[in-house]
Amino acid sequence: MLQVLYIFIPMLAAIFVPLLYKSIKNIHTGWFVLAVPATLAIIYASYIGKVADGKVFLEELPWIPSLDISVVSYLDGLSLLFSLLITGIGSLVVLYSIFYLDKHKEKLHNFYVYLLLFMTAMLGVVQSDHLITLYFFWELTSISSFLLIGYWYARDASRFGALKSMMITVGGGLMMLGGFILLYLMGGTYSIRELIVMAPSLVQHPLFTWSLVLILLGAFTKSAQFPFYIWLPDAMEAPTPVSAYLHSATMVKAGIYLVARFTPIFAVSELWVWLVTSVGILTLFWGSFFAIKQTDLKGILAFSTVSQLGLIMSLLGASALAFHGNGTTDTIKFAAFAAIFHLINHATFKGSLFMIAGIVDHETGTRDIRKLGGLMSIMPLSFTVAAIGSLSMAGLPPFNGFLSKEMFLTAMLALQNFDFLGFETWGALFPIVAWIASIFTFVYSFYFVFRTFTGTYKPEKLPHKPHEAPIGMLISPMILAALVVTIFFIPNLVGDTFVKPAVQAIQPFLYDSPKDIDIHVAAWHGEITPELVMTFGIVIVGVLLFVALPKWQVIYQRFPKSLTLNNAYDKIMLGLDVGLNRVSRLYMTGSMRHYLLYMFSSIAAIVIGSLFVKNAFTVSFQDISPIRPYEIILVVVLVIGTAITILAKSRLTAIIGLGAVGYTVALFFVIFNAPDLALTQLVIETISVALFLLAFYHLPKLGKREERMRFQLNRAIVSVAVGVMVTLVALSAHSQKLIPTISKYYEETVYSKAGGGNIVNVILVDYRGFDTLFEITVLAIAGMAILAMIKLRMNRKEKTHENK
Amino acid sequence: MKTNDVIIQFTTKIVFFIIFFFSIHIFLAGHYTPGGGFVGGLLTSSAIVLLVLAFDLNTVRKVLPINYTYLTAIGLLLALATAAFPMFVGKPFFTHFFDYFDLPLLGKQSLHTAMLFDSGVYLVVVGVTMTIIQTIGEDE
């Protein structure tokens, strides 16, 4: 119970945020919020020791037992690592946001409610063992991300970015739901653990490939892989704490998490290995290449994030090769380890870089790298942190990025040694692309830090006079930068505590416990390795390219704008918008007559059609009561009343005619022994006549068009069809005896089980109470709609008066 | 145009109460004999409509200062709460309970949670009908 509850603590805490914001004005609301992730981080940290020994913790809370849906908290190496990242980075981000967001100017209650909502969603994603609840939390992360990107909703770019991210990630999420449902159809369970056990038998299933592709679409859209990455740069409109948290450290890694979590199920498939590895490496290259084109500090970091996510993705793809039996070499074991290790490292250095970008923005008023420069002497602390983060990102010692980048290169080099799944021909490409991408990574890392902090200082271009950020704002990036350095010196401690348990979750068949993973991280292997040679190459070529950057940066202007993915997205959205508008305008004419025509003709077509197709029409003359004179008289009155209503030249006559029809129907109920219906019909009739009288004064006179109605063939056909339909249905309903009527059951149980005597009313409130509940809801909605329509119209009238 | 409506106004003052109490009777008796929340609600509304016709909207609003939108909301909440209540005692949604009691003056009577649900229906029907009539009637 407690372990599941931890997931929901942030959401529950969110309830109090608006209250605190409203009642305590003097203290920044962030200080209260900070307690939530900090407490959770401590709680999750207490699991570290046991999980590192290979233990797992599972707790289940039934949600909808009849549908087999429950909220599950499953803590193993992988989910614990993510939970720690979410709460740990979360604490630092909240601390940073306290200084970043002004307590007087910003809508803090909105911000922190969304942020806490996101925390719950993200914890839910990584801890759910149940596919459906995983999907539920997954979409919740998209929604909270949407709200956070659109936090400054007065800006066009914020709204655009929010919508774009929502469209792409929710679209991918829906694909993923499809994949989950296919998995359920194949395995008969929603539990990921149980599916993993079943994995060998699932491969043969014809739906396996579909499910694999759909789930990967979900992961790729969320983790901003090529070609879906386009939402991430636009998401940079969010406040910087959000970018640091959601769009670099946590949410975009949900896709990575998903791929890692499903590796034991799908890794045996050749398609999985190829898709994940090649999409990953392509994204790595694409992101690093286009990062240099960006002029916005956060834009560079966004593309860099895209690229780094691709790197982790490709490593996870390579790690899936370990499931392909005989070919397993020792080196490929590095892939899974390197993926998780780099994931941790990326969270530390990218988090700090985003915070620095936010600081630069905050202190100078711009993020445009063309206006910045020479800030080193003004903001020495920020520069130090930025340099540490950037050099780590570039893959230089003594920073943690160097270690994971070396391992990445090892894994990529190992790919060319595989002689199956087509790797004998294409495997050699991977280290080459990886090497080129690493060079661009090196260049944009230098570009980011040196263009901002060195070079000529251009104070005339800056909106504010820059100075060093307040110390509170620097605490979080400094902690992260300290981690960047520390991890370099104690990689094996980190490896044993965090990485190995997570690796075991990715490759459960290879190891019995995390301790069996014999990987030792070292900065210096005692000899000149191919990886080290590659790193030297990266540094040399990278420095040359960086120096020559002004000369070749112009090539980015050569790419035609019409061919970009962003343009394709805009075109698709615009096309859908315009096209669908055109379609709805075709039939939404605003004329009530047209709408009634659509409704009646389609209902007649559907009902008569299905009667015909199913051959359901039957007539039986059994159980027919004799026709008495009363009924004949009533029918005559009914027909006359209807004719008067239609043919009347004035409204008053039509209303009286309609009233006559209504009361005659009530009389029918009386002679057929249905007092409840008769009573209701009489009262309804009375009230509607009164309503007509009230509205009578306001209605215009019947127009000339209504007075001389011409005969219209299509309307005549529709009316006759509706009449025929009702008659056929009534006859068939009376005549079919396939199923015994339910009235027997009502008669037997009405007193004993329902404690009533009047079946009609017991049906309304008990047997079919659900219907009644929804009916009164609809009734209430209709009432509110009428109220709103009339009142809103009145308001507009009043306004026009004011304008005069 | 000035109309002389003394007779209708006088009759209404008496008839209103007859219809109103009849509607309450119909509502309460509904579980065993014809009637129920829906008809009861409609009858109550028709009684109020009679008042509106005999006098006018503003007079009726002064006599019965009820916000019918709130009434609708209260009715809907009551119905939903009655339906949802069993979930908190471990029974499925919409389970009704009933028993028979000896009440002072009234003798042996059955008390039924369905009645609470029906009260919700009654309130919603009165609320919606009167909301519609009031808004349309007010609209000049």
What does this 3D model show about the protein?
The complex is a heterodimer of chains A (804) and B (140). Chain A is mainly α and 804 residues long. Chain A has helices spanning 2-23, 29-45, 48-52, 77-100, 108-127, 131-149, 156-187, 192-202, 208-222, 231-234, 240-249, 254-266, 270-291, 297-319, 333-364, 380-394, 400-415, 423-426, 429-453, 471-489, 491-506, 530-547, 549-552, 555-558, 565-587, 592-613, 629-647, 651-671, 675-696, 704-707, 713-735, 743-752, 759-767, 769-803, and strands spanning 57-64, 69-75. Chain A has a two-stranded antiparallel ribbon. In chain A, strand 1 and strand 2 form a beta hairpin. In chain A, helix 5 (108-127) packs antiparallel against helix 6 (131-149), helix 9 packs antiparallel against helix 12 and helix 19 packs across helix 22 (530-547). Chain A is elongated, with a radius of gyration of 34 Å. In chain A, 44% of the residues are buried. The model of chain A is unreliable at 800-804 (pLDDT under 50). Chain B has 140 residues and is mainly α. Chain B has one domain (6-138). Chain B is 66% helix and 9% strand. Chain B has a two-stranded antiparallel sheet with strand order 1-2. The model of chain B has no long low-confidence stretch (mean pLDDT 86). Chain B: This is Monovalent cation/H+ antiporter subunit B. Chain B: It is a multi-pass membrane protein. Chain B: Keywords: Cell membrane, Membrane, Transmembrane, Transmembrane helix. Chain B: The chain crosses the membrane at residues 12-32, 38-57, 69-89, 109-133. Chain B: It is found in: Cell membrane.
